[in-house]
Specification:
Blueprint lengths: L1 E8 L3 E8 L8 E10 L2 H7 L11 E2 L3 E9 L9 E5 L14 E5 L3 E3 L6 H23 L9 E3 L5 H12 L4 E5 L5 H7 L3 E4 L15 E6 L3 H9 L1 E9 L13 H5 L3 E4 L7 H14 L2 H6 L1 E5 L3 H9 L6 E5 L3
Parallel strand pairs: 9-10, 9-12, 10-11, 12-13, 13-14, 15-16
Antiparallel strand pairs: 1-2, 1-4, 3-5, 3-7, 3-16, 5-6, 6-8
Helix pairs in contact: 1-9, 2-3, 2-7
Amino acid sequence: MFKALVLKKDPEFWVGLESLQSVELQEGQVRLGVKYSSLNYKDALVITNTAPVVRTWPMVAGIDGVGIVLESKDAGWQVGEWAIHNGWGMGETSFGLMAEQAIVPARGLVRLPQPLTALESMAIGTAGYTAMLCVMALERHGIEPKTGEVLVTGASGGVGSMSVALLSSLGYAVVASTGKVDEHDFLRSLGAQEVIDRSQLSGAAKPLQKERFAAVIDSVGSHTLANALAQTKYAGVVAACGLAQGADLPSTVMPFILRSVSLLGIDSVMAPIAIRQEAWARLAKDLDLAKLKRITQVVSIQDAVPKAHELRQGSLKGRWVVEVSL
């Protein structure tokens, strides 16, 4: 038996700690003894039941986690190794990692890279991993620090704040957009050279506006993404990875056909293993771990539910690690 943060809908929604029975591994699976998970925006949506993220019920929360291999039915993994898991539908279509044990597909596991500790890996979490995927996509399309300013929208959120920290560590001039006036100093401490109010980007967009940004990392979507596209320089690159404002894109083809702007879609859930491994290796090398430590807080699995409500309401900042082992 092991403890897990369980979600039910029968028919009323319920979330809380329960004891579950271990089940037998299938070929290609690994059983992790989970040490830490992290509180991401998608976790908050699930735990607060405010978006239809969960596809099957009941469910165990937690889209990511780090732990030690307790049992393996995959030749690539041995008992005692430390492994990170992100995505692949866990916490959505299969039991997640806010549990003392989790059965995970070996194809999605990444070895904990040095010098990261288990705690640091979940301080980074899916948010930081997604931010790194965005940075790598910009680089593949020719963006480098000398190219010009990089706009980060939704900069106070998990992906946004990790993007600011990563980009600044790599030498980029970062412009952070946020609606939270009291977090300007926080974003500057992560390396933002300028902080702008999100109202400058959140209204209806003209098809083309004054060129400013060499690149953009956008986790907001909707009008914000449309305005970001309209302000991207000729041959600039925009990486889109979220929809905090909305899933719509009220834009035109003008930035693409008149300024040769590239819009790149970033998916962290089903990314191939080679890209995952590269992203985590880069995070271990490129992220300023001192910055990460300053913005990291640890919460027990019992307290994950109230913290998820705070995150959903926008009242949390920084990175929140869930200590799973009781």
